[in-house]
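Researcher: Re-running this chain for the archive, since the previous output was lost when a drive failed. Same request as before.
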Amino acid sequence: MDMHQYLAVSAWSTADVDYFLDPTTPSWARFDPETGYGLGNVSVRDGVDGAYTFNSYAPDGARRMARQDGRPCRIDTFGDSFTQCHQVSDGETWQEVLGAHLGEALRNFGVGGFGVYQAFCRIRRRADAAELAPFVVLNIYDDDHVRNLDAARWFRIRGFREASGAQIRPMLHANPWAHLRWDRTRHTFTEKPNPLPTPGLLYRFADPAAVVQMFGDDEVVALECLRTGIDVPTRLRERIAAVATDVDLPDDLSRDGAGRILEGYGLRSTLHTLDLTRELVDRAGARLLVLLSYSAERVHERLRGQPRFDQQVVDYLSAHAVPYVDGLAAHERDAADFALSPQAYTDRYFHGHYTPAGNTFFAFAIKDAVVDWLDPKPPAYPGAGTPFAVAARQLA
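Model: Regenerated structure tokens:
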């Protein structure tokens, strides 16, 4: 199979698009002209112990908050499914756990599948509408970096598509969206709009010939093909090698080398997105906190002593004095308290995404940083003084 054949067989069907666009169908995702999709109200049997999870969203795209006391919400959180808290119900997210502890709500604008750049687009939309909260949390997951570059992430989730088979329609997503690409002339990243920004145009994604025409010269699809052993045209190989050189990566186009280019290219795009986000949040008069989230596999790597793949992101945050919480380091510290294998340790918290216990872990892993960051302090931490717990424990 070559790249064009892969694109052709990856096209949606017209019935897929009909289902995706029909507001009456039970669907995890709903069409969005900029970011491709947002989230819809849905119940899915994807929770811990085979449970159904219940996901509901407000008209502005925020996940339903259990804690609402009438006060304005001053914290907005953005990111992918580790912000959305996929695979747990509305009241089990880390935002709800942390909000209950702090005594104030955190609004959840996470969308599963988003990259850092697509999350930035959501932040910008809130800022442009003068609706952005004064405290902005950007949560970055370990696969988000490459998603910045995808014109359509659909071509990189072949395993998910094949595993879902005929049952995929309620989980259809990863259609074209706004993204970043390297501009060799300007020697910087440039923002690219969604190539299919209307419901009518989305039907082109169901036409194999149109899909080949639109994405047949796409360097990120080509990198994914090289990584998985699919043949790529010579012109694309040459362009990829040139882009790799531009962003200080080896131009090794072997399967492993293509994977390293894809990851490195994505990481560079995240640094650019952080520049955009810092500028936007500062212009809005808000404050930024960055969270770094990781899969069980990345935690395994760290617990086995492997170097982290995203050190340049940590270095960037430190160099620019951006407050952040490193979830990988938090897991490393926590795991030191257990005599468990890496797999047994992560089974405590993950079942793909965080379990309810994993979300509770994450809420308290970030709690101190959030309290330090907020001004004025949250109701649960109004200031110094002798904790009542010192006396209260004597009542037990």
